[in-house]
């Protein structure tokens, strides 16, 4: 903001010093968040270039319409870190069917 005197509201009133300071702080926060997002996206992009089993799954998912790099990467790390033996296990992992819980004396779905 080059000069505080030049900043006015839509109806022509001059902005106050406190409001200008708040706007500057918000702009600085926005710049920080944008920089952090760029860092995360760069790291995710670099991870996709690596040759691991999860990355291969992410690349396959990205061939589907509507699945981008970020979602495919997240899905492979959140859901496909393990191998499913059948479709019932897949449905249970995503809450679409009961997932049996067996821990000592406790047996639940």
Give helix % range: 55-70%
Helix/strand order, N-terminal first:
HHHHEE
Contiguous runs where pLDDT drops below 50 for at least 5 residues = none
What percentage of amino acids are in beta strands? 5-15%
State the separation between the terminal residues, measured CA to CA.
Answer: 60 Å
Mean pLDDT metric: 79
Number of helices: 4
Q: How do the strands line up in the largest sheet?
A: 1-2
Global geometry: elongated
Using DSSP, what is the number of strands? 2
How is the biggest beta sheet arranged?
2 strands, antiparallel
| Radius of gyration (Å) | 24 Å
**Which structural class do you get from the secondary structure elements?**
mainly alpha
Report on this model:
Helix content is 55%, strand content 6%. It has 109 residues and is mainly α. It has a domain at 83-109. A hairpin with a 2-residue loop joins β1 and β2 (106-108). α2 crosses α3. The longest helix is centred in the first third of the chain and has 33 residues, at 17-49.
Question: Keywords for this structure?
Answer:
109 residues, mainly alpha, 4 helices, two-stranded antiparallel sheet
Gist of the model:
With 109 residues, the protein is mainly alpha-helical. It has helices spanning 17-49, 53-62, 69-78, 87-93, and strands spanning 101-103, 106-108.
Topology of helices and strands:
Blueprint lengths: L16 H33 L3 H10 L6 H10 L8 H7 L7 E3 L2 E3 L1
Antiparallel strand pairs: 1-2
């Amino acid at each position: 903001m080059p000069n505080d005197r030049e900043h006015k509201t839509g109806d022509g009133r001059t902005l106050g010093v406190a409001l200008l300071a708040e706007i500057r702080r918000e702009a600085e926060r926005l710049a920080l968040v944008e920089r952090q997002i760029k860092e995360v996206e760069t790291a995710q992009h670099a991870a996709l270039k690596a040759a691991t089993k999860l990355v291969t799954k992410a690349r396959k998912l990205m061939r589907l319409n509507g699945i981008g790099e970020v979602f495919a990467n997240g899905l492979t790390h959140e859901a496909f870190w393990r191998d499913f033996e059948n479709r019932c296990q897949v449905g249970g992992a995503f809450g679409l069917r009961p997932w049996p819980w067996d821990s000592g004396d406790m047996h639940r779905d």
